[in-house]
Design brief:
mainly beta
Length: 175
Amino acid sequence: MDFVLGQRRPYKRSRFGSVTGTIVEMTPGRVGGNRTNGCIIFVTLEDVNGNTVLFLVTPSTYVVDFETLSVGMPCTFWYDADAPMPLIYPPQYNAVAAALEKNSRMVSVGYFNASLVNEEQTLQLNMDGSVEVRTTNNQYFQGNPANHKLVVTYDHSTRSIPAQTTPQRVVVLCD
């Protein structure tokens, strides 16, 4: 959905929402009345305000750097803001990506256009020969990462608008 503010260019909201907090519980998931044999995990996340959010972590959820999630870890989870979700409390989302919070690492998840600028027009990627571009199963991506949903890991950026960075790693979320 696009929003027009005055006569400026349209502002696009992100296709992805995120929640940052601490993992307080991890339980095996069930679909209907059936167990999923450990392939699906419900992660309960508590944010700094004490709000609880449930994330469904499936085999298709990309975890940055393939780190193992556990109770007590500070994490950020991203979800598809346009996907259907149940209207229950606490909210429950299907996790698209997850990352442990680390001081020196920044992670951006979103759609990047042909110029490698994200939808919010807040981050532009400067790709050079040193940037690893992978798929979610850690294989080299053989195409152009432009016009894809990406998980971008970087450690610094400029203070320009949009901020520019040469990422450490780019992961393409193939549909």
